[in-house]
């Protein structure tokens, strides 16, 4: 069911107040981006009435658009000031990329499912997020042509942070990623300083798996249960 744009605006204001600011997200630029990006455009038509609900939603191909609070939490941890080049692994719907595009100079985002990448690319262009660059491929190898990145965000769960992504992180850069097995991961924030890194645990989370070299194998006996991840 479609609502008016004023109604969607009201739903976004309420989402920011009750799900995001109330849980401690304080960066006003992040809160403002979350108020402005029309999340309902990034969810499937039949889920429009849940677009601003406090949960992840299915977007097809067994994948999800993340919960609004988790999008805000990961974005805030990147400490964007507007001059950065950001790399996102896992474009999915394109929603997280749209939020990042308001806070950074350029967003490079990689998605392994061509169907999702193409849909996200079309939608981002239609909505005017022209500083987002979408590519189909295995994001665990990063995007070396555009490295180094001041910020990297991985929106699928890896067994550990892929080494190519650490290599492509700029000195002083921040990387946020869910790390761990199916059903339970730690959201971590890695900060690079010279040749060393420091890691901070942020929150327990449950993401779909990062697939590929430097991620999880595509099919593993007794491994990922895709039906579980379709929640
Ligand atoms: N950021 C997305 C959004 O705003 O809608 C949500 C991403 S969803 C939780 C995780 C995405 O990572 C899925 O679309 C999945 O296909 C993608 N993915 C998994 N492994 C990948 C890989 N190796 N390279 C690129 N994308 C990958």
Description:
It is a single chain. This protein is of the alpha/beta class and 231 residues long. It has a domain at 54-205: 3-Layer(aba) Sandwich (Rossmann fold), CATH 3.40.50.150. Helix content is 28%, strand content 26%. The chain has helices at 5-20, 28-36, 68-77, 95-101, 114-126, 163-167, 226-229; strands at 57-60, 63-65, 85-89, 106-111, 132-136, 149-154, 169-179, 185-193, 196-205. The longest helix is centred in the first third of the chain and has 16 residues, at 5-20. The relative contact order is 0.12. Residues 63-66, 89-90, 92-93, 95-96, 110-113, 116, 138-140, 155-156, 207-208, 210-212, 215 line the site of S-adenosylmethionine (SAM).
User: CATH superfamily assignment of the domain at 54-205?
Assistant: Vaccinia Virus protein VP39
The CATH class assignment of the domain at 54-205 is Alpha Beta
Tell me, rounded to a whole number, the average pLDDT.
94
Query: At CATH's second level, what is the architecture of the domain at 54-205?
Result: 3-Layer(aba) Sandwich
Count of individual helical segments: 7
Please state the structural category: alpha/beta
Q: What is the CATH topology classification name of the domain at 54-205?
A: Rossmann fold
Q: What is the 3D shape?
A: globular
Q: Please indicate the percent range of residues in DSSP E strands (runs of 2 or more).
A: 25-35%
Note the main attributes of this structure:
231 residues; two-stranded antiparallel sheet; 9 strands; binds S-adenosylmethionine; Rossmann fold; 7-stranded mixed sheet; globular; single chain; alpha/beta
